[in-house]
Fold:
Amino acid sequence: MPYTAPITEQRFVLEHIVRIADLAATERYAAASPDVIDAVLEGIGQLAEGEWAPLARAGDTVGAKWTPDGVVMPAGYKEAYKAYVEGGWGTIGVPEEFGGQGLPFAVQCAVLETLGSANMGFALAPILSVGAIEALQHHGTPEQQATWLPKLATGEWTGTMNLTEPQAGSDVGALRATATPRGDGTFAIKGTKIYISFGDHDLAENIVHLVLARTPDAPAGTRGISLFLVPKVRSEGTFNDVRVVSIEHKMGLHASPTCVLSFGDGDDCVGELIGPEFGGMRAMFTMMNNARLNVGLQGVQVAEAATQKAVEYARERIQGARAGQAAAIIEHPDVRRMLMRMKAQTQAARALVYYAAGQVDRANLGDAAARDRLEIATPLAKAHGTDIGNEVASLGVQVHGGMGYIEETGAAQFFRDARITPIYEGTNGIQAADLVGRKLSLSNGAAFAALIEDMRGGTHPALRELVAACDAVGRRLQTADADDRLAASYPLLTMLSVATCGWLLEREAAEAGDDAFGRAKKAVVAFYLDQIVPEAMGLRAAAEAPAAPLYALEAEAFAA
Amino acid sequence: MPYTAPITEQRFVLEHIVRIADLAATERYAAASPDVIDAVLEGIGQLAEGEWAPLARAGDTVGAKWTPDGVVMPAGYKEAYKAYVEGGWGTIGVPEEFGGQGLPFAVQCAVLETLGSANMGFALAPILSVGAIEALQHHGTPEQQATWLPKLATGEWTGTMNLTEPQAGSDVGALRATATPRGDGTFAIKGTKIYISFGDHDLAENIVHLVLARTPDAPAGTRGISLFLVPKVRSEGTFNDVRVVSIEHKMGLHASPTCVLSFGDGDDCVGELIGPEFGGMRAMFTMMNNARLNVGLQGVQVAEAATQKAVEYARERIQGARAGQAAAIIEHPDVRRMLMRMKAQTQAARALVYYAAGQVDRANLGDAAARDRLEIATPLAKAHGTDIGNEVASLGVQVHGGMGYIEETGAAQFFRDARITPIYEGTNGIQAADLVGRKLSLSNGAAFAALIEDMRGGTHPALRELVAACDAVGRRLQTADADDRLAASYPLLTMLSVATCGWLLEREAAEAGDDAFGRAKKAVVAFYLDQIVPEAMGLRAAAEAPAAPLYALEAEAFAA
Structure:
């Protein structure tokens, strides 16, 4: 499907939301000069448009296939992945000390956005590797880093995250995989993991599995979990005992093989401990936090791609008339409303995710306030970013009318692909629980208060009203009963996300120029502030309601 | 997939929303006695649960198949359809004079709801026949009625509606199919029609196509359109010149073959005129109005089925703990919020669609006020009913977590099946345009005023506020510029639909008893009024905005 990387918009958001110039002024991110950013955005645009996007449809129709010898990707994927590796795109966000280019995480986000808009399922391979790289960076020994990081950074090897087991979905503490010391410092790994994206494939020479498991006599629950590195290939020619049992038959994202992996079926699966014993949850959160941002980013990816496709169709499809002339459907007010909404929501999600990404970089520079901002923005970016991806993909189908329901058109693929994103990397309900359970009270409530304070800089009346409502609801929930907090969590998450987007977009409009891009930006932002922000106020009643009404209907009565 | 017909709820809604006793008190609907209604609801429940539901998955995975000899349904469908015909279910809503049982349209709705929840794609076959029956009933000559109606009524033959052509989607007036007099009173039909649901299949001996076409020298646009009856089989053994060119590869609803039909490729396609020449649009609206209600009903079908499935999963899936005990996920507040929302929205959609169906019956009794109520409720029932179907199906996927994305689970099928309903039978945008373009000013605004007046009986503060907002917005739009009306059409449609649902549900709660059903009803309605109704107020800003902001971004700038 044709796709054009939105370079002007990405550069603008990097400048005005990430404030990349401030990052480039530091020693760590000195590489992020404007000309480098331009070269990155243009280069990845070319790769995505020219090599990744044309494979997206085969990714859906052919998909990754399980064979007894491992998972095989559709024709062309190996070459397109090789181009990604050889272009050095994997190393963008990796620190120079580990062989990377040392560019900010936010720039890596822009790269992954472009790849994922072109081919969402395929782009999961690099995204998963990012998590593995970060876990090693923060928790690996120097030897482990030297062994594994260089080829993970280039993408010659890919990484996976192995958390979920059949009986332990969102409840990670219930996992049962075991790691038994082999006496030589390594561990024998045994267990079954499910939902492992790119758990196997033929794109790379090796796959580095990061696996949560329990050592003998480990305490129950999350406290007893440790993280292990389990390579697919132990050393050249020697395969580890990791078996791909099957891949899932999913509604979408068929280019991404979702594997069931069996570790140690033959009692010969060797892993090494990453970080301290029982440090698994901490290491996992390192992987997961940024992975959550990257899933929020998938919302941006699919929203951008779906919008481009719908706009193209609406400009070409002649239907009905305006002022006596046959007209393209983009001229009809309700179609235009849908397209304007798609555009505004896409820009909102991008602002939110890039903003959070910018906080990753500031936190990496030791900025404690940025760490707090990141913590609170992460569930918003993951949940609201993916909610937007789904809404926009659905509007994209609607703009196409009957054609949208026909698979050959491609709008349906976005709709199906997007639907996993509110589920994986912690369901959006888990994100909402994280917001009200940990983030509202983080730093004794200072993190939440700081976000509210930031947003008080907003001037639009609807935005000011929404910020005040978020403040009142959030402060009340800080001391509320746990069930009441959770009952209100999703409505508050949406309100707070929309407020954050509105605040960021208002800043974008204020800093936009008077060129065509700037005028368009102002029109889109005005629509968001005037029409989308007020919608979120409609959630206030639900955000203020206690849990009791939900339990007024007994569990048995739901089935009656 | 297991499904249980919600008989108690259906009976309750027939009693308190349709007020079926009032209908049964008339001569025309005297057959609708309480024991007959009970027998109908229970009988169709048995057929749906026992024979239709078990075929739903094969309908998706195998689907209807095109072959050179026509479309073939999956194994078991022919027998299940035969059971429907032999049970007399097709004749439920057909007047006694045409060989039917003379029961109200609202009762037919309940029958189709149950069939469609069990197997949504399959149930389209009977639904399409209903449109053909009604067109013949109202516009056929006595001879035509005698020839075609009896077997359409029993379901021995099925019916189709042929409107859309490749170049004419929502713009019916642009159609080009031709009908040329053959000199014997019949017409030679020529043209290609697309998106013809059950345009061919092997369930019935004959298929009665109702086809819009132009006679020679017909005026341009919708004024020049006439309706023709084109049978698949002209007389025993003699096939008409109607060819199934292909069936669409759709995202869902695979049990329903969506055909491209070519009429008169060999210049030997014979049709007969239904109603007067150039009366095609009027006849089409007869078919379409009730077809629109039946599509709104599909929203209820899929919402009910998705809710039942999600509730079952949530009661069985153990994950995490509450009060130190392993708990089923239905016990977690945010999961319960989703399920409560699914249940409330499903009941809201059912109330809205059954209410409109009850107005069909009253209008058939000559009640002019009911005719107005029906006219204004039709776009609400179609658009909001299907919007709810999609929202609830999506929540159903979410409740299942990762399992929801795996096709074998079945939640994804609902999500894919539902997505066509906001598109066909007039996109929901077309429904919104109908609301603001024709219905707001119907009977000089009296129809709208009557609905508002009805809803002023509501007592919940949020409902009263919403009704007042609908009144203010609607009255302003009655005299607004066409573009401003259309720009505000969808937000108003949603507000007015939610208000109508809230008003009807409040009545349900008020009339519910103190038994288990009544207590559950009150809990669900309280949730709807307290938490869903206020959301709709968030749309007021968009409903009050003019069209100008949508055009502030030029068409070209959307692609930039």
Summary: The mean pLDDT of chain A is 96. Residues 280-316 of chain A form the longest helix (37 residues). Chain A touches chain B through 94 residues (CB under 8 Å). The longest strand of chain A covers residues 187-197.
